[in-house]
Amino acid sequence: MNFKNITVAGSGVLGYQIAFQTAFHGFNVSVYDLNEESLDKAKSKFATLSECYRKDLKATQAQLDDTFNRISYTSDLAAAVQDADLLIEAVPEDPQIKTAFYQQLAKVAPEKTIFATNSSTMLPSQFAEATGRPEKFLALHFANRIWRFNTAEVMGHASTDPAVFDALLAFAKSIGMLPLPVYKEQPGYILNSLLLPFVMAGLGLWANQVADPHVVDKTWMKAIGVPLGPFAIVDIIGITTAYNIAKLQADTTQNAELAQIAALLKSEFLDKGILGIPTGEGFYHYPNPAYESAEFLK
Ligand code: NAD
């Protein structure tokens, strides 16, 4: 399978990053969003993003100019996919929006186009039927700030063609990602299957007054020899997201500890407008959090 023309649907937080990363690595990229206003927003963010590429990846002006020249924009779905080898979907994390999007897409996309969803919490099998081409549909999951945290988890569903799965792994590598094959459908892929229980275990120690957040982090950092503990990670993910996950899990499992975690995150943080790194304060103060100082582990 030869990929040349890539369409990115949805140009929000992740979509515009996927588009830029893909164009940076030499592919023609068509960015599709609902209206001109959303597309203009994405365009304006590319300028800031290119500074990150300059700083973090030592990108040259010529490379960045070429990247911009390879990106086109449209709010017409049929035009966006007319010659697409691959469409990467990054529309909102809402099953109804995604299903409606795939139903519409199925009507206008050429037969050759492979569809990949970047959904973080949903499974490809949920949308396989709506795509009208289940064998050419799978998940390609990126992480926020993809040029630095360049993981690409590739996960099919039961009917995904193995050749499509392999082609997506190769594509991920060709746009500078670390390709990570996931052989079975797994909610949360690999990363969140590890990270969420870990973070909730840390929050549980705090909610049950077993230990203070910084002490929990110190324990983990020193004993395992890593630079971040669970509370530093919560600040990075954002308190809002941590709360949403704890609340959803508490509501679906009736787990009392998760309910307590959610209640505390709300009363101690959300209600006070303290949201982690986005507001400069969470379990730590930014831009110079205590865990980055040499004194922290002494
Ligand atoms: P977002 O809300 O920032 O952006 C969504 C974009 O889709 C918006 O620009 C919106 O105008 C557009 N949109 C809405 N309906 C559309 C439609 N029918 N067709 C085309 N575009 C439409 O969302 P996001 O955070 O970028 O998340 C997008 C996807 O990426 C989700 O599935 C999410 O799970 C996944 N993801 C997000 C992150 C993250 O850190 N934000 C990380 C990994 C994966």
The CATH homologous superfamily of the largest domain is called NAD(P)-binding Rossmann-like Domain
Residue fraction in strands: 5-15%
Discrete helix count: 12
Number of strands: 8
The end-to-end span amounts to: 54 Å
Regarding quaternary structure, what we see is single chain
Number of domains: 2
What general outline do the C-alpha atoms trace? Answer: globular
The largest beta-sheet arranges its strands as 3-2-1-4-5-6-7-8
Structural class: alpha/beta
| CATH class category of the largest domain | Alpha Beta
Order of helices and strands: EHEHHEHEHEHEEHEHHHHH
| Overall pLDDT score | 96
The kinds of small molecule bound in this structure are: nicotinamide-adenine-dinucleotide
Low-confidence stretches: none
What about the largest sheet? 8 strands, mixed
Work out the radius of gyration: 21 Å
| Fraction of helical residues | 40-55%
CATH architectural label of the largest domain: 3-Layer(aba) Sandwich
The CATH topology of the largest domain corresponds to Rossmann fold
